[in-house]
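Below is a typical protein record.
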Amino acid sequence: MSRIVAENMLQGGESVQFYDQRVQQAMEMSQASAYSSPTLGQMLKRVGDVRKEVTGDETPVHRILDMSDTQSISSHSLPFVLSFNNLTYSVKVRRKMPFPAILRRPAAGVSTAHPVAGENLFTSTKFLLNNISGEARDGEIVAVLGASGSGKSTLIDALANRIAKESLKGTITLNGEPLDSRLLKVISAYVMQDDLLYPMLTVEETLMFAAEFRLPRTLSKSKKKMRVQALIDQLGLRNAAKTIIGDEGHRGVSGGERRRVSIGIDIIHDPIILFLDEPTSGLDSTSAYMVVKVLQRIAQSGSIVIMSIHQPSYRILGLLDRMLFLSRGQTVYSGSPMNLPHFFADFGHPIPDSENRTEFALDLIRELEGSPGGTKSLVEFNKTWENTKRSNENPGTLTPTHGLSLKEAISASISRGKLVSGTTSDIHTSPASMVPTYANPFWIEMLVLSKRSFTNSWRVPELFGIRLGAIVVTGFILATMFWQLDDSPKGVQERLGFFAFAMSTTFYTCADALPVFLQERYIFMRETAYNAYRRSSYCLSHAIVSLPALIFLSFAFAAITFWAVGLEGGFSGFLFYFAIILASFWAGNSFVTFLSGVVPSVMLGYTIVVAILAYFLLFSGFFINRDRIPPYWIWFHYLSLVKYPYEAVLQNEFDDPTRCFVKGIQLFDNSPLGNVPNALKERLLSTMSNTLNVKITSSTCVTTGADILVQQGITDLTTNYIVGDSSGWDISTDLDTWLVGKKFMVGDVLVFQYSSLHSVSEVATKENFTGCNTNNVLDSSKNGNSNFTLTKPGDRYFVCGNRLHCLGGMKLHVNVENANGTSAGSPAAAPSPEGGVSFSPSSKSKNPSFVPNFALSNIHVGLDSMVLVILGFLFFAFSLV
């Protein structure tokens, strides 16, 4: 026999009169205030609007709201009743079965139990909620109690529509009408057990930002400030209004004040229903009492307050109006705290005089749960006791469950100043249409989100300082190690190593922001769950706020390394290099944000970030060329975020067919002959020239920048080559000279420009063009371009030039190679131009040339950077789903 049962049998059912009197007085005060209490909107009007109407003074009033002063307020409570009937929620759990039991055969003659419908040998059904019914009225606090795992939080989540409707059975109604999820998001609020707040914002700023989100644009700035100030007074946070929230590294408000701030940001729009998941958890008795006292004020303003609580103290018990005890998902008691002693006395276990009522009830429930019969007897007794209680009550004294329809109740609530989030009191519309989905337009949300994020980030300079320090140190090390690389075989290898390490560094340094993103994730989920703002506005505002810091980091890294390493392109090349670094930072930042949306903790997040970035570097093309990656891994190559900036900087550095990196005797540098005397190398070159019938000297260019790109497997993006310029030139005499020794790749584009400055007409046609005549000459009076894409090895073009005083035509062979360096046939000799050509030397100096590697018409860098930005944006967007 248990200790509690034995003590009950000895002590009987008497209770302490002093305890009963205190609780009775508290209950009478709570019930009296429920029918003569103001709404939050009216309280705010009293402390601000009324004074403005009388004196014209709009200065906010800071004073504690006096809840007892209700003479000017209507004496009728808002008629809202939230009812829930037969709520049942179950999940499938894995059966605990030892391995031999699976293989063991049942003994002969022994019947085996058949699994319940929906179950099998390996799973069973566990009921988290089992036929739970009850109701909650405005002006009251309903407390859900029970041991850990009893279903308290599950019931709160079910009522708040945080459980999938397909899994939840039963009905939830407001004033007898089914509760629409869109309507519930606007007229209710959910306060989580954890205080999810921005640590570097003050209490006043936190509530003000909440007001900017939840209150409509039609409400003036001064009205919003007055509402925030009145709420600070109501929450008892006046002394902490200018104090930051704080975190582990920054001292801020106390735990009880943090909890009240969490409540405040969710009631800023004066909701009709307020759900709270263990709001007193982790608080001392004084702080817990103050929190529940605030909840009583909120309930008295015309709201329904439903909260789960683990073990209320004596003082908190006097503030509760209804109690719902749960045990393993079933109701064991539902009713007023005043009836609790009578209930357990009738059950045969009267509450001792010296015991706290709730503590005794919870201890008894735990002991029954550990007994063989469980709490089945208590559940059945509760049903019988409820039926007996209802049959003994006078039907004439019962309060009607539903007075007004939901439309009428919402309209009356709006008329009295409640539900201020842009609602309309048009009773002819549906309840869901009486409240907007979002209180503010998209651009207002972006401005407020950007301001809040910037304010919080500005007050945490150490995070940016750590990232900047890492970038500066890494850049300095790279600059000193790869100082002024030359155009040699060794210089090429060192450039490749520098680019691979530099691009991977931009991604690794973004991992430092993972804790911040994890912190913001839960705040984002809480705020968007009840339509505080749109997901898209958060995404764009986050990008806007992070962009200045990323620009500064990118510029610092690019400025330290570009000229120190000796990269090509001058100032224009530096701008492209900077753009690639910036795009890499943006993609890395978004990638870390994406991971923060799917990992549960910081440690696991760091592990995954480091591992995935290592894979990205492995498949970037630095360690192994794309054409040598096995087909079953090629998908990871295109998924690698390091691939795109790596290829972009290679394009920016080596995309110049005229720049030579390996000349003559440098052929032997990376071979065993690299240390032999130069004279011997020259004799070897002479022997090779005689053997190959190709003249190769010590100054002959063997490998150009374009060859290096081919060796690295970077051949999938096209290059634009300009033929012609704005001054006009004779194509028949200059183009053949320019094409000598030029190599093109499949996909490259020849752009023929036309100019009217010198009355020049030119035409370019494919191989099937048989001659040049006036019918095929493009009119030179109109400027324009004619583009031809080199689609296959061996493409040939006829180019005809036509001046007013001469005719010229020739057949050109464009040497087009594929990715393997294979061309089609030997170039055909170009015939001499027909007729003489005369033009000035100044015009001759503008011979056709390829597009410089830093020109805007070369789209390699632009495409790679655009791909990075798009990937980063997609990563960030997917993290918000």
In short: The chain has four domains: 1-77+137-169+184-390, 442-654, 660-704, 720-850.
